Amino acid sequence: MGFNQPVVDTSPKVSDEVRKTTCYMCACRCGINVHMKEGKVAYIEGNKDHPVNQGVLCAKGSAGIMQVNAPSRLRAPMKRVGERGSGEFEEITWEEAYDIAVSKLKPIRDEDPSKLAFFTGRDQSQSFTSLWAQGFGTPNYAAHGGFCSVNMAAAGIYTMGGAFWEFGQPDWDHTKMLMIFGVAEDHDSNPIKMGLGKIKARGAKVVGVNPIRSGYNAVADEWVGITPGTDGLFILSMLHCLIKAGKIDLDYLSQFTNAPVLLDETDGSAEEGLFLKDKDGKALVIDRNTGKLAPFDGKGVYPDLAGTHRKAGVTHRTVFHHMIERYMSEEYAPEAVAERCGISAKRIRKLAAELADVAFNQAIELDRPWTDFRGKKHDKMVGRPVSFHSMRGISAHANGFQTCRALHVLQIMLGSVETPGGMRFKPPYPKPATAHPKPHCKVTPGAALDGPHLGFTHGPDDLCLREDGTAARIDKAFTWENPMSSHGMMHMVISNAHAGDPYKIDTLFMYMANMSWNSSMNTSGVIEMLTDKDEDGNYVIPNIIYSDAYSSEMVAYSDLILPDTTYLERHDCISLLDRPICEADAVADAIRWPVVEPDRDVKGFQSALCDLGARLGLPGFVNEDGSQKYEDYADYITNHIRRPGVGPLAGWRVGEDGLQGGRGDVNEAQLDAYIENGGFWMEHVPEDAAYYKPFNMGYQDWAVKMGFFDAVQPYIFQLYVEPMRKFQLAAEGHGERQPPEHLRERIKHTLDPLPIWYSNEPENLADQYPVTALTQRPMAMYHSWGSQNAWLRQIHGHNPLYVPTKIWEENSFEEGDWAKVVSPHGEIVVPVAHMAALNDNTVWTWNAIGKRKGAWALEENAPETTKGFLLNHLIHELLPANGDGMRWANSDPITGQAAWFDLKVRIEKSDVAGQTLPDFAPQKSPVGKGPKDLAWKLGK
Amino acid sequence: MTTLPTHTEKKLGLVIDLDTCVGCHACVVSCKGWNTENYGAPLSDQDAYGANPSGTFLNRVHSYEVQPEAGPAQLIHFPKSCLHCDDAPCVTVCPTGASYKRVEDGIVLVNEADCIGCGLCAWACPYGARELDQQEGVMKKCTLCVDRIYNENLPEEDRQPACVRTCPAGARHFGDLGDENSDVSKLVAERGGVDLMPEQGTKPVNKYLPPRLKDDYTNTGDIDILAPLLEPVAPDAKGILGWLDKALEKL
């Protein structure tokens, strides 16, 4: 043929209309442009104006069109007609569904509201769902933080008023060295990728600390393939080197942390180890200007790190003295920890030296004057341009809280938190633990709870205990077993409810949590608990109500299904009261709105709660005349008032001079204003308030104006967390509220107010099960949701167990082999694949790809069910028995965080292959199966 | 057989940074979305919810492990789509003229109206960059989003391939590689961009930027270069307090 160039239409019409909303293909909450054709979704791309993603969008986000059209979408409310787990349902009307729900819930509320356990999984509306639960009066409410990253979040808030992701981020514009610890490939998703791209283009160094070199760790300039669970020891060893070399920011530590605060050293007293305080309760320091005692925040005071105070024959020394004593100890020397961490002593020193070099020899200064809370004027902002990021990898261990604390303390000792080039908070954070609520648990029949469920404990008085000392909450959060469990412990609810320990419940009400599959430890056991019957043939957990948008594994185990919408069919607010979308330089919130109307008889779960709340007469959900207060969630978002001038959304509120951001009265057209603006609201942090936020009066004043706080509340970073010491004092025998005997030693040891490291290996029988088994979430899949997505499941349709070279060769594995993986709790049979860029004693797989046959509208022979698997079957919510007659929880002793990543296994070649084990009987799909082929196109 | 133009006015193409690509597949799915809804037949999926799901993708990401001489193994993410070769064997092999390279910008396209789905082009392409759509029976390939890059219905800033617009890590760049002053050409020069499989003689327009040196401590052998920075200021905790007093005086 000759050359023959046809004419191509290079300017086709792109769409009829672009509707801008917020993604929910994962928890990252990017802005999206939804291109519409003929009223349907034609194409989804990132919103360039949006603060989170600035136009980019990940694989999940771009695949949203396959989610909004997924065959697994539930179609109508359903009631169970077969046995639990069978998947036999009958579709019913919403009225019938509400009648059933009210018939279960009303009597409970009138008699004993704690008989309801309401847990809301990966909920992005916790400030709303918690209000509902509070109105109901049950103490049993939480979302999924306890099995996710509460260690990171709580350690951050107790230490410095925030952690990473939603709380803070590296200063991408200025940082010169970024160290990431245990970061899988999400949280937050796009901003980290954008940041990595930005700093790599600038030539800044990225160090990835992770047993697995994939994703972000694959592009890191240097990989530290650490032994899982030893991050805290590695961090404290670097801290040892830095302190010994004097490479710490003394000026910053003096002014902005509690390092100079004096500790009471009266031996054996009930105050030993608590702060010396003045009569107003202010922590005391020695003022270097006068040499005398002074409140830490006194005007003109310059706290003395080296201060001592002698009184009644006792010398009281500063936190800093204690830190030096502890971390100078040779037990933290690189040589002492190298073998355990799997990192050579030389390399630990090298990394510490690099941190010191960048922080102190490459310091940066911004010419921005600011004034601190002592009234001192600073003519510039000094930055230590080393930054850190970490999430679940170091959190999900039983030593996770202390490890996260160690990381936060390291950053602070380098003077890099809230300084240019370091880690920056995102408004409304920073917010210290003292500015958060305490947990509440006082139950009154027929009435609301006495306050918010979740919060921060500051000592034994704040624990959620009943008069007899037993747990007030079904998950045993805020008890001596885990006194600082700020996010609750969703992973313990079903096993505790089944055991009737601390008490029996009547109804389990859940939202967006796949508890009979990938969201539970001990999946097989949980399935048994959900279906177990008593002597009379009644289910041990009598009623289960569940809301989900899709035919997940959990649907089959529920008695009543309230079908949720997809994310493009609903209203939502990503609220400052909740888990906002702010950036370090801007305060922002956002909405979702129905860019398409559901074509099924489904309803946003929050709207269903407005209806149910009204039918139950819950305070906050009915008007004075008893009528329904909020017609739906959109009505709540617009009209709810949390505090004077503060509602769920901060944008376009009514002020004296017109519409304004921050505080203001209700604006009936607020949602329209959001839609007009692309689905979000944003205001920039003033330049003089951009750094040093906890101490910077410019920021504090702005925060009050915006409504984050009602009064300025500057604070100093808590290297020493005094509330932990209060729990220790109780364990030492002080005070009225005393821990049970069997927990005393553990509390004394683990609730150390300065970071420590301890091994979790003996409890997990590492001598018999020497290999750590981990999961990571793939970038192109989010929990279960991706498997129903026709495009994403072609990227991750099954998940081999990745095996390092050493173990691969020891077992003579070959490509295509299958292995038996055995833990103290169970065994699975799975396909294996070789991976060289992996710690020698670690195996891993992708999270939540494996599916149960019959779920998610997949064919029963889908690879997710035949070659996909969960490690969850190997993990128990309790540790193996150790002969002391007790079964200890497989969770962090401080926060109760599920210790997923402490899993120890043995691995050997399997004779059986071809079907992953355990293999469960198929569930009947309540929505049928998906179409065979797809050719998706709306335009001509 | 089909002839190639002797010269193209521009050489539009992609520059893909293997140093920054985290392997997230954002480009893969964004491409799938745009090109399902736009140019030619939709990119279909077979057995979409079944045992062997398999669909048409114009861009895929592969991952390879690399074992350098010194240091630990590395993982490289490698996105691959049509490279819009100057000497495109997929064009010259086409029996109907359906495959062609555009004179104005060098983009290699398939005119689906003339494609008989014989698959010769896919066989001729050394990169495996073409996929026969199973539903439509026509050959699909990267169009460099020819219906975006000139599209007057899009804001100017969006006139770039969907994969480039969406890439979160900024690892994909688009421009005229025939113009040595273009940003992409400068980037290639600066970072030592390379052709994929140059020995095939296809003269690909797309370029790959190689990963930077990683784990440099294993190459230099000198892990102690910063050691003086960690010189102890004192031998023990007591000594540190003495040092502290002096250091605080200086503040």
Characteristic terms for this protein:
heterodimer, A: 940 residues, alpha/beta, Rossmann fold, Dimethylsulfoxide Reductase, domain 2, Barwin-like endoglucanases, 7-stranded mixed beta sheet, 6-stranded mixed beta sheet, 24% helix, 16% strand, globular, B: 251 residues, alpha+beta, Alpha-Beta Plaits, 3-stranded mixed beta sheet, 8 helices, 23% helix, elongated, Tetrathionate reductase electron transport protein (chain B), ET_IronSulfur_Cluster-Binding (chain B), 4 iron, 4 sulfur cluster binding (chain B), iron (chain B)
Write the layout of secondary structure elements.
The complex is a heterodimer of chains A (940) and B (251).
Chain A: E1 17-22, E2 31-37, E3 40-46, H1 59-62, H2 64-68, E4 78-80, E5 89-91, H3 94-111, E6 116-119, H4 126-136, E7 141-142, H5 150-160, E8 168-170, E9 177-181, H6 189-201, E10 205-209, H7 215-219, E11 222-224, H8 231-244, H9 250-256, E12 284-286, E13 293-295, E14 308-311, E15 314-317, H10 319-327, H11 334-341, H12 345-361, E16 364-366, E17 370-371, E18 377-378, E19 381-383, E20 386-390, H13 392-395, H14 400-413, E21 423-425, H15 493-499, E22 507-511, H16 523-531, E23 543-548, E24 560-563, E25 572-574, E26 586-592, H17 605-615, H18 633-639, E27 653-655, E28 658-660, H19 670-676, E29 680-684, H20 697-706, H21 722-731, H22 741-750, E30 771-776, E31 801-803, H23 805-810, E32 818-822, E33 827-834, E34 842-846, H24 863-866, E35 904-909
Parallel strand pairs in A: 6-7, 6-22, 9-10, 9-20, 10-11, 22-23, 23-24, 30-34, 31-33
Antiparallel strand pairs in A: 1-2, 2-3, 4-5, 4-24, 8-21, 12-13, 14-15, 16-19, 17-18, 25-26, 26-29, 27-28, 30-35, 32-33, 32-35
Helix pairs in contact in A: 4-17, 5-14, 8-11, 8-12, 8-14, 11-12, 21-22
Chain B: E1 12-17, H1 26-37, E2 45-46, E3 54-55, E4 59-66, E5 74-81, H2 89-92, E6 99-101, E7 108-110, H3 120-124, E8 131-132, E9 139-140, H4 146-149, H5 162-166, E10 172-176, H6 183-191, E11 207-209, H7 217-220, H8 237-250
Parallel strand pairs in B: 1-11
Antiparallel strand pairs in B: 1-10, 2-3, 4-5, 6-7, 8-9
